[in-house]
Amino acid sequence: MKTTLLSILLCVSCLVLGQGDASSSKPSIRKNAFYLELGGNGFYYSVNYDRIFSISKIAHLSLRAGFAASPEFGSGYNSYVVPLEANLLLGKGNDFFELGVGKSIVSERSNNSENINTFRLGYRYISDKGLMVRIGIVPFILPLFGNDVLVIWGGVSFGYAF
């Protein structure tokens, strides 16, 4: 009787699937994203691409490049903005705290070009299905009349991560 019971338990235990490790049960972070940012480093709006590089389980580096055309009232577009940014993402799963630095390259129709230093303090959410939402405070240093002026700005982003 003991031998039969032990044989049945051994056969059943071979059929039962064990738990997989945590790394295989949840996919890794989605590393690419396209998104629209309202406000932020593009000032009014920008269309962006973002790539994430993992540093550790809770720290990631994000590099971003975008494009925006700034309107001049009544006569089309006056300038183009190229926001460039590097962010440190801290967090696990779907939620991340963002710290970033960057430059917004502003090229005006009159062939003047200016580099504006930007910073970011924000939050990023990436859903399991790919929805990406960001919100942040984006201070930047604006040269006005020969002086550098700190401007506190904000931005919100919506896009798709893959």
Description:
This protein is mainly beta. It has a single domain, classed as Porin (Beta Barrel). The chain is built from 2 helices and 10 strands, in the order ααββββββββββ. The protein has helices at residues 2-15, 22-25; strands spanning 32-39, 45-54, 59-71, 77-90, 95-108, 113-126, 131-137, 140-144, 147-151, 154-161. Strands 1-2-3-4-5-6-7-10 form an 8-stranded antiparallel β-barrel. Strand 5 and strand 6 (113-126) form a beta hairpin.
Provide a short characterization of the protein structure.
The chain has 162 residues and is mostly beta strands. The protein has 2 helices and 10 strands; from the N terminus they run H-H-E-E-E-E-E-E-E-E-E-E.
Largest β-sheet summary: 8 strands, antiparallel, barrel
Low-confidence stretches: 8-24
| Percent of residues in β-strands | over 45%
The CATH C-level class name: Mainly Beta
Roughly what percent helix? Answer: 10-25%
Q: Name the structural class.
A: mainly beta
Q: What topology, given as strand order, has the largest sheet?
A: 1-2-3-4-5-6-7-10
Beta strands, count: 10
Question: What's the tally of helices?
Answer: 2
The average pLDDT value, as a whole number, equals 84
**CATH architecture assignment name:** Beta Barrel
- SSE pattern, N- to C-terminal: HHEEEEEEEEEE
Distance between the termini: 56 Å
Radius of gyration: 24 Å
* Overall spatial form: globular
Total individual domains: 1
CATH topology assignment: Porin
